[in-house]
Amino acid sequence: MRILVIEDTVVLGEAIADRLQKLGHGTDLIGNGRQAADWLRHQQVDLIILDLNLPGLGGEALLAELRQRKSTTPVLILTARDGIDDRIKLLDLGADDYLTKPFDFGELEARVRALLRRRQGYATDVSRHGNLVFDRAARTASIDGRPCPLVNREFRLLEIFLSGLERVMSKEELTEKLFNADETPSANAIELYVARLRKKLAGSSVQIQTLRGLGYVARVAPP
C-alpha cells in the first residue's frame, strides 16, 4: 500500500518511512504542510500519517483542508497532546486515529494495519479467499493450510489485489502503490512481480488475469 508520512522532524520521519518500507509499503515523506497539501491534489495514497506541528501549514489545518476536499483517505495523527479535549477535537476534524508521542513502533504498525484493513473492508487481520488464508499481522499466506512463502513486495502486491478483487488495476496504479516516489522501477517490474506471485499462488483460489492494454484483475475462483 502507498503511505504518505508528513513529519518535519527529519530523524523521526525517516525512521517511520524506513520502517514502513521494510514492511513492503510504498512510502513518501514530506516535511512541509503546504507542500503536502499541494502534493495530495495530484497524488492518491492509501493512508496519511500526519504530524501536527508543521511548517507552511499546520497539521490541523491540513486535515481540515483534506476533509473539505471530500478526501476519505484515512489519517493517523502523531501528536504530543494527550488531553481528552485535544483528542475529541482531532477526531471531530476528521482524524481516523491518533498516536501520542513518544510511541512504540510496534503500536504504530498495528494502527497502520488497522486503518488499512478498515479501508479494505476487513474486520480482522485474517481473511479467507477460497483456499487461501491471508494474515496481515503475521504477514503470511497459506494455501490449503500450507505456507505460501512471499517476500515483502510479493506480499504487498497480493494485499493490493485482495483489496480490489474484481477491479481492473493498471500497471501505473500498481507501481504507485508498490514503490516509493523516489524509486525508479524498470518498465517491466510489475510484470515480473505479478509473474512471481502467480507462480506462488498456483493451486490457490486466487487468480490474477492479465487484460491486454488495461492491466490486471484478481478474482477468487468458485469452489
Automatic annotation (TrEMBL):
Pfam families: Response_reg, Trans_reg_C. It comes from the Bacteria. Keywords: DNA-binding, Phosphoprotein, Transcription, Transcription regulation. GO terms for molecular function: phosphorelay response regulator activity; transcription cis-regulatory region binding. The keyword Hydrolase does not apply. Residues 124-220 bind DNA. Residues 124-220 form the OmpR/PhoB-type domain. Residues 2-116 form the Response regulatory domain. One of its GO terms (cellular component) is cytosol. InterPro entries: CheY-like_superfamily, OmpR/PhoB-type_DNA-bd, Sig_transdc_resp-reg_receiver, WalR-like, WH-like_DNA-bd_sf. The modification 4-aspartylphosphate is found at D51. One of its GO terms (biological process) is regulation of DNA-templated transcription. The keyword Transcription regulation applies. Gene3D superfamilies: 3.40.50.2300, 6.10.250.690, Winged helix-like DNA-binding domain superfamily/Winged helix DNA-binding domain. This is DNA-binding response regulator. It comes from Zobellella taiwanensis.
